[in-house]
Amino acid sequence: MSRIRRQGQRRRRVWLVFGWVIPVAQLFVPKMFVNDLWAASRPKPQRRRGHPLLTAWWLSVLVAGNAYAFNDASKNLKKAVTATQARDALRQIMFIDGLDICAAALSIVVVWQLIRRLERAAAIAPAEVWATGQTTS
What we know:
Blueprint: H1 13-21, H2 29-40, H3 52-67, H4 73-79, H5 83-132
Helix pairs in contact: 2-5, 3-5, 4-5
């Protein structure tokens, strides 16, 4: 990362672990790291954190990840006595599965975009260092 962006991440690596383990931090730390990587992949004058794709991706991950917590569809399906109750519970489950698929698809797109952008930035970075005479350490 330092080869592409000298400042690196806004936070230390411990924040990465903190962001995936501590419940409240899970709401913002993982996206913060992706925003930093996204910014590092852009040329220096155009560097800014965030992008609508990243916001849509993170919101879809949060919504899909919490959909089961606020829904009793599987319990309702187990308790269903009539076909209508079972159908309604299955519709809810299918909707939640659709949210999961959307989050997964957006995650794939974000990862592909990041890989492509960072590889391009890494290829350009040595040429910029050579032109300015600076070394990376």
